[in-house]
Amino acid sequence: MALKVYNSLTRIKEEFLPLNPPAVKMYVCGPTVYNFLHVGNFRVYVVFNLVRNWLESQHGYDVTFAMNFTDVDDRIIERSHEEKIPSEEVAEKYIVEFKQDFQALGLRPHEMNPKVTECMPEITDFVKDLVQKEKAYQADGDVLFAIDSFAEYGKLSGRRPEDMIAGTRVEIDQKKKNPMDFALWKSAKPGEPFWESDWGPGRPGWHIECSAMILKHLGEQIDIHGGGMDLIFPHHENEIAQSEACTGKHFVRYWMHNNMLNFSGQKMSKSLGNFITVREFLKTYPAEVYKWMILSVHYRSVCDFGEDAVHRAVGGLAKVYSALAVAESYGAWKAENTNLVAKDPAFDKVADAVWLKAIESLDDDFNTPEAFAALYELIRQFNTQVKRGLKASPQWLAKSLIFKNMVQKIGQPMALFQEQPSVFLRRLDDLLLQKTQLSRAEIDVLVTERSQARAEKNFRRSDELRDQLLAMGISVSDGTDGTHWEVLK
Ligand code: AMP
Ligand code: ZN
Fold it and tell me: Which parts of the chain sit beneath pLDDT 50?
């Protein structure tokens, strides 16, 4: 089946056809390393982790994925002044912290993580080349890109420079030939880190780093360039101008942009103060809760963050893991059982149909909500066919294995459903219980009382207690291994 992706440049969904299959070259703009990242910042890394995994596992591509670290920037310099440590130290510290969060979220490392400080010769060569080609000019120690030298400026964002200037959204600056011209190189100010160049000491502008790193590590043309939608203008528009003005070639085949994560109706952002860091979030919630929250929404839609969204994610995951825990109780996690499975062709068929639906959904511009819907259908079918607490049989084991394998197969590209079910479900149930303010001890007392009533054949009392527990949102099931309770899903 063909993969379709929405290309922000053409504004349509297109069939994905890389330049040199099976190779796929992919780049995503990375973080400016001056602070811990918040749960909004990380959306892009979760989304493109799925994109790369899907290209490889489903379509057999050989992906080279690069993401940069912006380790030269005003905010880093500010931070270094605040903390009275060199800006290299600030950057190094937050690169380490980023990698720790990235790993904690179970995302796959990229092939390359270039830093601006490691690409200075390539950046200055790039700027020199643009000056030589008369696409850029010097002004007071700065080097500016001349947008009038690039006829297609504005093609990605759909913004026309003349409209923006007329709308007085652009400050007039005497040294600029066009008010929309932007800095490729900035002359050094006192107290700032600088590098020597033909134009005197200074440092690169923000946009040029991505163009130079892509050229250095991936080449003149790449297949996918990703990032948050807020980067379309000016950052990505400027990357296109620099790269295409320099090489004369079409820079990126598919531009992919994820939407923002909102908190109480506004974009989560450090400057608004309405943020929670990934580090903080993961102190309370497992990483899969975060990934579920992000991926249960299509990447081009706004994702709402907040107590309700987190609760929905915990509840959704708990539903999956509750069914997986049943599969586990029938031995689906014991590898030695694999060869003993009596086949269940009917359930195998159900699982295959769900897999086809999942493929169709992810091939349709990574429609994860639809893939989740397919998964829910599989869970529904499993839950109607397999009940907890029955005597183990080859039939339950077969269904359980088929179910487990399919859930993990769907989850793999999204980095979901890879935990040990019974252990993880307990954690999720605890999170759900927090919301109801019930404690395990309270529930255990009622469940034990009910078991006693049953043992004494006092069914009226045991039914009463079951109803009482149900009203509290707790379901009880009696099996060969005793009574089991969990939060209603
Ligand atoms: P900033 O720290 O605002 O410069 O953002 C760094 C990166 O995180 C950029 O690539 C943004 O696209 C992304 N980003 C920032 N805020 C959000 C958000 N609320 N939702 C999604 N992405 C975001
Ligand atoms: Zn970039």
Answer: none
The pTM of the full predicted model, rounded to 2 decimals, is 0.96
**Does the CB atom of residue 324 touch ligand 1 within 6 A?**
no
Residue 264 has a pLDDT of 87
**Amino acid 353: pLDDT:** 98
| 63 phi, psi to nearest 5 deg | -95, 135
Can you tell me whether residue 62 is helix, strand or coil? strand
286 within a domain of the structure (yes/no):
no
Q: What is the number of structural domains in the chain?
A: 3
Together in a domain, 371 and 455:
no
For tokens 């078991």, what's the residue?
A: 451
Using CA atoms, how far apart are residues 319 and 380, in angstroms rounded to an integer?
10
State the CATH number of the domain containing residue 357: 1.20.120.640
What's the gap in Å between 200 CA and the centre of ligand 2? Answer: 25
Name the one residue in this structure whose structure tokens are 């190189």.
Answer: 185
CATH number at residue 108: 3.40.50.620
Q: Specify the pLDDT at position 1.
A: 79
Atom of ligand 1 nearest to the CA of 268: 19
Neighbours of 139 (CB within 10 A): 17
246 lines ligand 1 (CB under 6 A): no
Both 95 and 225 in a single domain? yes
Query: Can you tell me the distance from the alpha carbon of 286 to that of 221, in angstroms, rounded to the nearest whole number?
Result: 38
User: How far is the C-alpha of 281 from the C-alpha of 295, rounded, in Å?
Assistant: 17
Assess whether 102 and 170 both reside in one domain. Answer: yes
The verdict on the CB of residue 260 being under 6 Å from ligand 1 is yes
Q: Is 269 close to ligand 1, i.e. is its CB under 6 Å away? A: yes
Determine the pLDDT at residue 340: 60
User: Final residue of a domain: which of 371, 389, 421?
Assistant: 421
- Tell me, yes or no, whether 282 lies in a domain: no
pLDDT for 191 equals 86
- Integer Cα distance of 388 and 329 in angstroms: 8
Q: How far apart are CA 93 and CA 133, in angstroms?
A: 39
Looking at residue 173, what is its pLDDT?
80
Distance 41 CA to ligand 1 centre (A): 4
Which domain covers residue 191, as residue numbers? 4-267
Q: What is the 3-state secondary structure (H, E, C) of 345-397?
A: HHHHHHHHHHHHHHHHHHHECCCHHHHHHHHHHHHHHHHHHCCCCCCCCHHHH
Verify that 411 and 468 share a domain, yes or no. Answer: no
Position 389 scores a pLDDT of: 87
In ligand 1, which atom is closest to the CA atom of 262? Answer: 19
> Which numbered atom of ligand 1 lies nearest the CA of 29?
10
Task: Classify residue 300: in a domain, yes or no.
Answer: no
Task: Determine, yes or no, domain membership for 482.
Answer: yes
Residues within 5 Å of ion ligand 2, judged at the Cβ atom = 29, 210
Instruction: Tell me phi and psi for residue 481, to 5 degrees.
Output: -100, 20
